[in-house]
Each structure stands twice: as C-alpha cells, then as structure tokens.
Amino acid sequence: MLKIGIAEDDPKIAELLKSALEENDYQVLTVSNGIDALDLFLSESFNLLVIDVMMPGLNGIQLCKHLRKNTLHTPILMLTAMGTIDDKVTGLEAGADDYLVKPFHLKELLARVSALLRRQPPIEMPTDHKLYFEDLILDTYSKEASRANKPIELSAKEFILLELFMRNPNRLLSRQFIAEQAWDISFETGTNVIDVYINFLRKKIEKGFDRKLIHTKINMGYILK
To answer: Per its UniProt record, what SMART domains does this chain match (predicted)?
Structure first.
C-alpha cells in the first residue's frame, strides 16, 4: 500500500483529505504543524507528501526547503489559498513538484496525486535494521545492543526506550511523549515509572563509560546527546 503524509493545520481539511485518500487505498498519516511534519517526514518513508503553505511552526515553503536540504526526494504536492503566478513559482522553487489552489475538487486532488506517483519508482523500504549513536548500536531485528562493541543486556521495556531515544537523537523527549510512545498511555504526573526505567537504562548503557548519553532537562524531559 502506498503511503502518503499530509501536513495541514485545518482539521476539517486534513480529515477530508485523509478520508478521500484512504477510500482510494492509500495509507495516510497527518500532522497539523510544520515542526511535527519535518520530524515525521524525515523519520519515516513516504511515497508522496501533501503540504499546506499556511501552517504554524514552519510554513509549507520553509518545510519544503528543509526537506529538500535534507536530500529528501519524495514528491510534494503543495496546497495553498494563494494562487498567483508568483505564489506558485515560490512553491515550485522551494522544491514542490505540483501546486493545487484552494478550494479544490477532490477529483482533481486525486488525479494529481496519481500523476505524481506515476512519475516515481516505488520506494524501497530501508533494509538497514541497525541504529547508531556515537559508539552505541541497536539491532532492531536481533534485539541486541552494544556500546563500544561491549554487549548490553536490556529488558523488553529498556529496549523500547533505547530505540525511542535513538530514533530521536538530540531531541528533547517529554515524559508525556515517552509515556505515549513506550507505554501507549497518557502520562500521570503522580508516577515516577518513566524516571525509574530511564535510570535502569542509563546504568546499563553508561556504566564503565566516561561519556554520558542520556541527559535530564529538569521539568522538561530527557535527551540523547
């Protein structure tokens, strides 16, 4: 199934696009601001991206430039309420492959999506199943971890936590985010289970090493750096 990412801050439009594309057998992920879109589009593989110009965080033009600067070649369909020639040129020069002005008919959107996908060879999913950070290696197939070639024995939850950090290096992860991703629950301020497990993980990946990797930002969360 082909995978499409949508960056659109209007929830009604985002849901309309998602429903229309899913009805046509596409897998769809949506985000509502440019910062989250940048993280998602660089961390996962997509066959096509649909990006609105007017968004909080990063606007569509800025997002498109950042994606192309990171050598992302996924085709991009840009949506905007601004339909002058100069607006279209700006979007295309930022790296968009096509430009659709709001309001638009869903039939036209689907036709443009189909046309863009026909131009692209199918995306090959990454075959590399190893994550690297400094001298730390995590094998997501064998579920093995090592640092400086020294094996590290991790519990299932510790492995999930470490994978979460290594997929988000140099990014501050809040306790809420960690709870949702690693436990699939909402964070309860009265519990210290996240802090306890992170301390377990720290002891295993930092014991015997001078350089610490997981750092605490007080009242904010944790960061792998």
So the answer is: REC (SM00448), Trans_reg_C (SM00862)
Average pLDDT by stretches of 10, the chain with 225 residues: 93 94 95 94 92 92 90 87 76 86 91 85 56 91 89 87 92 87 61 84 91 91 93
Residues 187, 188, 194, 195: is their CA dihedral positive or negative?
positive
Q: Is residue 141 one of the residues assigned to a domain?
A: yes
Q: Which amino acid is at 186?
A: S
Judgement on whether residues 19 and 107 belong to the same structural domain of the protein? yes
Tokens 């339909």 -> residue: 83
Pair 179, 140 in one domain: yes
Residue numbers of the domain that contains 37: 3-118
How far is the C-alpha of 108 from the C-alpha of 84, rounded, in Å? 19
Alpha-helical segments (H) within 53-188: 60-69, 85-94, 106-119, 156-166, 175-178
Cα–Cα distances in angstroms (integers) from residue 207 to residues 58, 71, 132, 153, 210, in the given order: 40, 37, 18, 12, 8
Location of structure tokens 């501050």 = 172
pTM of the model: 0.54
CATH assignment at residue 105:
3.40.50.2300
Structure tokens at 209: 């090493």
Structure tokens at 7: 């960056």
Residues 160, 84 within the same domain = no
The residues near 122 (Cβ < 8 Å, ≥ 6 apart) are: 47
